[in-house]
Amino acid sequence: MSAPTTAPGSAADDRAVVRALVSLKVRLLRNGLRRSPGRAAGYLIGTGVGLVFGAGAAIGLVVLHGKEGAADVAAVLTAGLTVCWAAMPLFFFAGDESADPTRLTMLPLRPRALLRGTLLGSLVGPGPLIGLLMLAGAAAAAGRGAASAVVAVLAVPLTLVLLIALTRSVAAANARLLSSRRGKDFAIFGGLLFAVLVQLGNLGVQSSVRSPGQSLDLSVLHPYASVVRWIPPVSAIDAVRSAGDGAYLVAALQLALAAGLLAVLLRWWLRSLQDLMVSGDSSTLVETSSVHSGRAARGWRLLPAGRAGTVAQRHLRYAWREPRAKAAIFTGIGMTCVIAALSVVQGWGSVYVIALGGLMLGLQSGNLFGMDGSGFWMVAATLSTRQDARDELRGRVSAILAYGAVVLVLLGPVVAAVTGGWADLAPAFGLAFAAFGTSIGLGCVISVYAPFALPADGNPMRSAAPGQNGVVMANAFGSMIGVVVGCLPVGALLGFLLLGHHPAWLLLPVGLLYGAAMVLLGIRVAAGGLLKRLPEILAKVIER
Question: What's the chain's Rg over C-alpha atoms?
Answer without folding.
Answer: 27
